[in-house]
Amino acid sequence: MTRPPTAAQRRVIDAADPVTGRLRGTEAQLAALVKRGLAFRHPRPPHDHFLTPTGHRIRETAPEVAEPVVEAPAATGVFAARIGGEDAADTGPARTREVHSAWQGLLELRRMTNADGSVDRPCGWERSHLVQAAALALEAAGHRPAGRDGTEGYRVRATPQPEAVAVRDPDGAALRACAGTLERAGWQVSEHNEPRTGASYLLASPRRS
Question: pTM of the predicted model, to two decimals?
């Protein structure tokens, strides 16, 4: 069984970029993480270090990136796309830049971790963070999330189905626009109706090929 990382190594892992997994640390710390299979050194200059899938799994056990980050992003310093239902928050230029940067980082993560370097389909990180990944694709494309105060918009939620999220929006045109955005972002999307209310919603899963 693999030994857990040391306290110093864990601090480096916890401080990794939440989207790309880019690491900062001393050469000795980074080399030790590479040796243990928790990080890899990018072959292209500037030869930054990034978490491997194993490193990401270890990072997910840290309190800083546990599930509440998705449900209450305003309470942490870690970037979280808006899944819908949060308190009213800044939607100005600063947030737009932050979302754009996160999306570009996710595309880079796809390029680095998909075997063929493809950026047009989701990567492993997205499959293990379905709600956050789908919400980032929607927010980056300019869709409006629902507010806790009842403001209409999209809501992304987990489902009992493996690798599938549900996307809801009371505005039918907005819901169809969400479907188009997710399809362009590499997700498979199908539209369904709620059995009791007949309301439309989307089921979206990351495309594998």
Answer: 0.64
